[in-house]
């Protein structure tokens, strides 16, 4: 597996998804096919609506339906949302196995690992499904140690207190 083709944007600061989307647009402008799978972001954003206009070069899929933080959901809602998220994870595996795209962005995937909605074993299966040619990008707040061994580039994004360097 080519670690250089696995990138993570993580940290407490804002802009992780924006950085990944910017990279996705750049890749699409160079002729690459891009698929973006969003987890935990159920409400349609203006950015996502705009990206949907860029199909077929960039395809966007969102598997969260309730639009609220997972920890704030009732047990029943967590079960329902968990099934939606599992569908998204299975879709991402299928995309990697079939080689449907040059770049696969898994937005807020780190949250799946950290909340244990996806196990380390499932992560390993996902990573083994990736071909050498496919670039894979993850976003989320907290970098997971299980993912670190597969990752070539890790960008940590932090809030700036207003002071410069």
Name its key features.
6-stranded parallel β-sheet; 165 residues; alpha/beta; Rossmann fold
What this model shows, in words?
The protein starts with 5 loop residues before the first strand and ends in a 9-residue tail after the last strand. The longest helix is centred in the middle third of the chain and has 24 residues, at about 75-100. It is built from 6 helices and 6 strands, in the order E-H-E-H-E-H-E-H-H-E-H-E. The protein has about 160 residues and is of the alpha/beta class. It has one domain: 3-Layer(aba) Sandwich (Rossmann fold). The protein has a 6-stranded parallel beta sheet, with helices on both faces. Strand 2, helix 2 (about 45-50) and strand 3 (about 60) form a beta-alpha-beta unit. It is globular and about 45 Å long.
């Amino acid at each position: 597996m080519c670690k250089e083709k696995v990138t993570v944007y993580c940290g407490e600061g804002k802009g992780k998804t924006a950085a990944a989307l910017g990279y996705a647009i750049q890749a699409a402008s160079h002729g690459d096919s891009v698929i973006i799978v969003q987890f935990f972001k159920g409400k349609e954003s203006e950015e996502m609506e705009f990206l949907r206009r860029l199909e077929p070069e960039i395809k966007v899929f969102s598997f969260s339906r309730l639009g609220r933080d997972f920890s704030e959901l009732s047990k029943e809602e967590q079960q329902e949302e968990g099934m939606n998220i599992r569908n998204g994870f299975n879709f991402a595996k299928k995309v990697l196995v079939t080689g449907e795209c040059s770049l696969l962005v898994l937005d807020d995937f780190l949250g799946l690992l950290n909340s244990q909605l996806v196990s380390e074993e499932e992560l390993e299966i996902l990573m083994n499904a990736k071909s050498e040619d496919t670039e894979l990008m993850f976003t989320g707040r907290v970098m997971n140690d299980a993912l670190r061994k597969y990752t070539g580039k890790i960008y940590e994004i932090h809030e700036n207190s207003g002071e410069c360097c």
